[in-house]
Amino acid sequence: MATLTKIREPKTSMDLRSGPFASSPPTFEHIITGIDESFLWRLDDYPWERNVWNFHPEFEIHLIRKGEGVAFVGDYIGAFSATYLTVIGSDLPHDWVTMTAPGEVIEGREVVVQFHPDRIREATRLLPEFAELEDFFARAQRGLVFNGETLVKGADLVERMGTEKGVARLALFLQLLDLLAGSAEYEILSSPEYSPKLDAETLDALQRALVFIYRNFAADIRLSDVADLAGMSESAFSRFFKKNTGNTFTDHVNKLRIWQACKLLAESDMPITDICFEVGYMNISNFNRTFLRQHRMTPSAYRRLTPQRRPLRDDLSPPNETLRR
Predict the structure, then answer these.
(1) What angle do CA 181, 183, 188 make, to 5 degrees?
(2) 3-class secondary-structure state, position 151
(3) In Å, what is the CA distance from 50 to each residue of 72, 83, 184, 295?
(4) Using CA atoms, how far apart are residues 85 and 76, in angstroms rounded to an integer?
(5) Please, which residues have CB within 8 angstroms of residue 41's CB and are 6 or more apart in sequence?
(6) 3-state class (DSSP) for residue 136
(7) Which is higher by pLDDT, 296 or 245?
């Protein structure tokens, strides 16, 4: 069995030093609002000290304005690009990671709106209309990402809040809550099975495992190696990992590999067979099956349907092009 020190580095060119688990486990973020405000509105650059895998009792409305990368919300792993609007429930670990060059800063990458749902619940005593938000709070507990007109209108309201203060900002906030609560244009991110045990010992063991997986997912990574790192047997680690991430070890690695494959398909003209090996698969058949299961289309179909990528040589291929083997 390969030792941890002998596993080769990932072949991908991304800078993992700025990854979601680069320095600490899911961090409890202490959020302080001003005495004259009921919620926090903040414009953030990326990266900065609070761009970490974190959780907090406050709900978070998060607007990605610039850049692209991979979103981690509970047991969800998926790609994001601007514009990307999410709502994160209480104590749900989350992070949005953009791979940056050393010293690179994306100014104003995101806007964060944070509020404690108990404040809304307390206000319901005087303003009973707020009770309509309870269903929204329940749905948002697993994390929601919005699309369509809701995304467009929601992003506009979030941006406009930055230009207002006091009652005017509060009015926009309430408009935003009403819009999101009444919308059907959303997807739920984290699974209902996700129920991590958020204590220091669990987070420390999980942190070490997640760091290692994230840094080595394109390598020949094995369950036995990660279990050894966590100080557990393979069977015990498998149960531990599933309970605290919501994914099996294999599913977690596959999600990261397919995320990186999607980036390469969209942003390069690298042959699909080369992408297969670049992201850590040992044969094209396994890569194709996993990609199809996650995206319900083949890698070549995904490449053709990616609008933002630059023109590629295989754009001229016929629609019924078969996968390279």
Answers:
(1) 85
(2) helix
(3) 15, 21, 31, 31
(4) 15
(5) 111, 112, 113, 161, 162, 169
(6) helix
(7) 296
Mean pLDDT over each residue of the chain, to the nearest integer: 81
pLDDT digits (tens, 9 = 90+) for 162-172: 999 999 999 99
Residue 227 backbone zone (phi > 0: left; psi -120 to 50: alpha; other: beta): alpha
- Burial (CB count within 10 angstroms: exposed 0-12, middle 13-18, buried 19+), residue 89: buried
Q: Which amino acid is at 17?
A: R
Q: Are 21 and 288 in contact (CB under 8 A)?
A: no
The answer to whether residues 276 and 284 touch, using CB atoms and an 8 Å cutoff, is yes
Q: Give, to the nearest 10 degrees, the angle between helix 249-267 and helix 234-245.
A: 60
What does the block give as tokens for 82? 């601007």
DSSP characters over 165-213: -HHHHHHHHHHHHHHHHH---EEE-S-TT-----SHHHHHHHHHHHHHH
Q: Given the structure tokens 């999607």, which residue do they identify?
A: 262
- In the β-sheet with 59-64, what is the strand arrangement from edge to edge? 40-46, 106-115, 59-64, 84-88, 144-146, 186-188
C-alpha torsion 250→253→258→261, nearest 10: -140
pLDDT at position 226 = 92
Is the peptide bond prior to 202 cis by the omega test (within 30 degrees of 0)? no
